[in-house]
């Protein structure tokens, strides 16, 4: 199942400039592993050894995955993932 | 008791911030004093008061800003607080463009002064807010005064006349190094320009996040950002890259060990300054480091339970 992932400006150097990419997997964690295969370097920007980095938010639809099971959050067909910096910068 | 400090306007409360020596986080560099310049002592609570005040006063003086115009700019934070505060004090309307993921306290502070907020896409970051502000101004140029803190020479000038001159007055020939983070780069550009005029060399060290996606609010990762027009990389002698985690941990340590509760970008600045002092100590070189503390940590409290470091 392909899931659409929205990429923030700060990470588009890893996706060849694309602001949306697709990846496969039944959970958020699996999608991130697939993203890493397609766009090497992405996983380390998003995760550390404890899980999602403290300054990164990952949303499935409107829900922050921290409150829905983290990387184990299951995806349904048509779900969209957004990677949003926790801070606004600048 | 200090001399009386009685002023006529909140605008006059900007600047003349104290330098406080850090004693504990510098324990591995006992012979290299590190002084933090506490910019949260400004009336808006941050270093950005200096630039905002100078940009507003210079524009009012030469007629670019009049009371029938709306002051508009892109800012996620402290500059917006400063514009809002001085706008209220001077009877000016203020409209700010910011990514919608700025923290709630930040939205509440600027609204307290009567400022209007326009949201930009959080995925586009601060550069998206810049583009959105430019779009609004282009659509109706006569309605707005757009200070454009990234391009406005009044921004670094505030630091040339203020920050840099104050450091030389307070430490004189003792200071050997100056450390500040790069956001608009105004603090580094103006202060470095002043410090480089001093008759003894002062090494200027700029701090940047180590990665494009980071949690050091206020700092810019230059390589992946719109480079500010006021930025001149030849003015500083060195760039040090600091990780979000090191910046956050130093901010924690400053609160717990020094009684100085600072924001993330200040944590990164102090992390770089302490590392520098430790290197001088190891080489047995004399030195005296001045580092900019941009704002207070309570500006970053937010009710998100996952924020381990700044949970309340």
Any chance you could write out the topology, listing elements then pairs?
The complex is a heterodimer of chains A (90) and B (312).
Chain A: E1 2-6, E2 20-24, H1 28-38, H2 42-46, E3 47-48, E4 51-52, E5 56-60, E6 63-64, E7 80-85
Parallel strand pairs in A: 1-7
Antiparallel strand pairs in A: 1-2, 3-4, 5-6, 5-7
Chain B: E1 19-21, E2 34-38, H1 48-61, E3 70-74, H2 78-90, E4 93-99, H3 104-112, E5 116-120, H4 125-139, E6 144-145, H5 154-171, E7 177-181, H6 186-196, E8 203-209, E9 238-242, H7 244-258, H8 264-282, E10 289-293
Parallel strand pairs in B: 2-10, 3-4, 3-6, 4-5, 7-8, 7-10, 8-9
Antiparallel strand pairs in B: 1-2
Helix pairs in contact in B: 1-2, 1-5, 2-3, 5-6, 7-8
Can you characterise this structure?
The complex is a heterodimer of chains A (about 90) and B (about 300). Chain A has a single domain, classed as Beta-grasp domain (Ubiquitin-like (UB roll)), CATH 3.10.20. Chain A has about 90 residues and is α+β, with helices and mostly antiparallel strands. Chain A has helices spanning about 30-40, 40-45; strands spanning about 1-5, 20-25, 45-50, 50, 55-60, 65, 80-85. In chain A, the strands form two sheets. In chain A, strands 2-1-7-5-6 form a five-stranded mixed β-sheet, with helices on one face. A two-stranded antiparallel sheet of chain A has the order 3-4. The N and C termini of chain A lie far apart (about 35 Å). The longest helix of chain A has 11 residues, at about 30-40. Helices cover about 20% and strands about 30% of the residues of chain A. Chain A contains two helices and seven strands. With about 300 residues, chain B is of the alpha/beta class. Chain B folds into two domains: about 10-45 and about 155-300, Rossmann fold (3-Layer(aba) Sandwich), CATH 3.40.50.1100; about 50-145, Rossmann fold (3-Layer(aba) Sandwich). Helices cover about 35% and strands about 15% of the residues of chain B. Chain B is built from eight helices and ten strands. Chain B has helices spanning about 50-60, 80-90, 105-110, 125-140, 155-170, 185-195, 245-260, 265-280; strands spanning about 20, 35-40, 70-75, 95-100, 115-120, 145, 175-180, 205-210, 240, 290-295. Chain B has a six-stranded mixed β-sheet with strand order 1-2-10-7-8-9. Chain B has a four-stranded parallel β-sheet with strand order 5-4-3-6, with helices on both faces. In chain B, helix 3 links the parallel strand 4 (about 95-100) and strand 5. In chain B, helix 1 (about 50-60) packs across helix 5 (about 155-170) and helix 2 (about 80-90) packs parallel to helix 3 (about 105-110). The relative contact order of chain B is 0.16.
